[in-house]
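Q: Structure tokens for this one, please.
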Amino acid sequence: MNEVPDRQSLSPAPAPFTPDWPAIRARYAAAVRGTYLNLGSRGLLSESVHAAVTSRLAAEHEVVAGDIAETTMKDETRALFAKLIGATPEEIAFTRNVSEGLNAIATALPWQAGDNVVVSEELEHANNVYIWELLSQRFGIEVRVVAPDRGAIDAPAMAEAIDGRTRLVAASAITFTPGFRTDLATIGAAARAAGALLLVDGVQCLGVMRLDVEREMIDALVTSTSKGMNGLRGQGFLYVRKEWITKLTPMSVARTAIATGGHYSAFEGRKFAFRDDAQRFELGHLNYLGLTAAHAAMGETLEVGVANIERRVTALARRLAEGLAQQGWPVNRPPFPEAQSHMVTVGARNLVGGPEATGDAKLDAFAAALKAEGVDFTIRRGLLRFAFHMWNDESDVEHVLRIGAKLAG
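A: Here is the predicted structure, written as tokens:
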């Protein structure tokens, strides 16, 4: 039986200053135009990010972006993401999206029949399920499925499922439904004790809630910039803890991943070695528009402070959850305080629910009324899903509550 630490409090640290929230809201045209609570699917571009991308596109059009400027921007972007998660730049690789990062790590391990992966399948996005089923079919590994604890990933049970044949543990930092935060440190401690790799999907967390890869004992982290990081779709990041980098052999290779000093187009012989940093996972030309957006957006996020953002959005989420619950709506509440996130979901979760309807007539009527009143949200797995970021304020909460009050009862 694995010994696991007590749950660690993830309450926000004291804020060094109070951001000008109205001024921040004004940076996001979609937030000013309507009630935008759809962060679970897509973030927003600020005016500054839009300007940076437009400038980059103009440089591409005029073919004036040089290698030195591109290298500087890449280095700065890598360093900004490392700062965001408490890592070093050498541990960061650029990817296209979460799926590419998951596949990069999953296929780099030396799997053998009888090995196992531990995952709370019911709470993961499909992209963090199919990859393990594929490896099960291909290599004969065991997929150990851990049941949720009142809608949250059961960290002690995940830790308990780990044994000497566990090669990898997969978990989301915040589940995409019902949106509860995971006690990663408990899972990470057990995985590290067993020599297993903890792989975390951070896409619903980064940029809006704090995450520190050292504190939470994460070995690999995947994300995209399309949600809380307020960037473009088609740009992602991969973190690999330095102790794991050289233990992982990528199944895909590009010239830029090779440990040589020559030009990226040069062929220097059939024998080669991968780089000894996370760039061994990078493939070919990069998405410079995506990197430009990420560079500008992370600068804004770090300036505001993720602890400040977390404090703001969790307060708004609690206010909405409490208000809807008082009206009689079936709000999903976190099983313990540390699981609170920036997301609020309403309804009964099911695994096959589509994005158009919940399967509950009353909730569907609520959804239709919200859409008619200009509220941007999502339906996922039978749940109405609302998610807050730094551009939201109390007026967004009150708008939803006014609509809910008309249909409650």
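A few notes: The domain at 21-37+306-407 is CATH 3.90.1150.10 (Aspartate Aminotransferase, domain 1). DSSP finds 13 helices and twelve strands in the chain.
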